[in-house]
Design brief:
single chain; 582 residues; alpha+beta; Aminopeptidase; Immunoglobulin-like; 6-stranded antiparallel β-sheet; 24 strands
Amino acid sequence: MTSDPPRRSDALATLAALSLGFRSRYLRSEQVVAQLRAWANAWPDMLTLRTLAQTPEGRPIVVAILGDESAPAVWVDANMHAGELCGTHVALGVLEDLLALRLGAAPSRLGIPDAIAPRLRELTAFICPRVSPDGAEAVLTDGRYVRSLPRDGRIGQSAPRWVHRDVDGDGLAQLMRVEDAAGEWVSLPEMPAVLVPRQIDDTGPFYALYPEGHIEGWDGFTIPEATYLSDTQTDLNRNFPYGWQPEPAQAGAGDYPCSEPESRALVDFAGVHPNIFVWLNLHTFGGVFIRPLGDAPDAKMDAHDLGVFRQIEAWNTEATGYPTVSGYHEFLYEPDKPLRGDLTEWAYHQRGALAYVAELWDLPRQAGIEVRRPFIDTFQRMTRADLARIAQWDRDHNASRAVRPWRRFEHPQLGPVELGGIDPRFGLQNPPPERLDELCRAHARAFLRVASLPPVVRLDQVRVVRLDAEVSRVEIVVRNHGYLATYGAHAARALPWNEPLQARLACHDGVALVAGDARQSLGHLEGWGRGAHDSSYALSVSRSRGNVQARRAQWVVRGAGEVTVSVSSVRVGRVERRARVG
């Protein structure tokens, strides 16, 4: 391993000392913000924080901004689903590793190639580690299931419904089972604490299974179905503008697109930051990456973008062992029924970013369960043997955090029940805390490669040619040295805000423009990357595409003094140089 020079070692030691232990324990929402503030206070010239919104419970949704806010950027967000906590820690790990690189850490320390380190040291990154701090706090402190947000503003709910709450005062809201001859559940003989769906040859006892809590609007008889949105209205990942559809067409859609301050905060920020080229949306669990398209087959996808996603897939699989699947082909809960209002679909189609999901924590593989294809079948077709393997893994490798014993309780509405069952937080939805570090390392290593993709626009040449005693020609050559083109996702070229590059000449005292428009459109510049499996890589037809990464502009000026030449767009920021003429 390459050693770091003394000054760099001091800075890296400071970085290590500032850690609040997020690589080995789960942080509450105020601790996440405290971690970000510790880094920002230590290196204010590198890192700034911005509060995107305040939640209804008064918690800030914070984004960390590393680097020049207007330069080509990547985005990472996590924990929009309340119980999917470990994404927060991976996002913090990505930010800590980017800080380490800027402070001089050797790339080998982080498991990345030397070749991309200079690019990453100048990269702009927006990191939002906890999109739903209210939801995460409810999960961490109450132990109850919350899909995204611990609130419900729906009107017209006079029918009985379940409210998931701690009823016995032990600080956790888990499950309740009630012995019922018509129940749909039965205990595993070898593991009685584990309930599995009833089969025709089972002999009982049989159980009905409910969330720990109470029935709001209880009429003394009706026991409503308990859904994952019984008492929490909106699933944030169904609340974004692209393809949004209302209930009941899409469960969890919310009242209207971006009806929640959490989703609206992300959309508002991205709307004024068109310079986001890569978007990583962190979820759990499953051990898989999900890429576009979510609403159509690959045959309908832009072929160039598909090639780039295949390159990203290769890097991600190398770093994590996870496969990458199409959202449409392998991650629909119902055939031919795409999920609507999805964040990464919006980021890809409407913001021109290469956007994808990481479903962190490969529990099926950890438990020795067969990974089926399409990938969603791994979860939808679990057998009793699969569930037993998960329970065995929990016992042997997770200190029995997830599978809890049942205990008797007299419920005020249902009478005798048993409380316990499954606590999915640590081991099922998220890795055990002692496994956080390996997850952070692997996924930071994967993402840092992807983060090196945005365009890199440079003024490669600024030349002044004297034409006579009074007149000179100013020439520039601008080139994109990056992998991606300046328009981002290939499918996004026609988006109305996707501005082409503009070259400008500003004349200072003593110099006047004679010929050539002061502002000249250069169009977009291609990148050098072609994605994986591009047909032009075939040995028999290997060719370059000419100098499609470069453009030239020129002006004629009169006089002696200085001029400033610049190239800019909303997607790539601004580069400029001064030159002397005459």
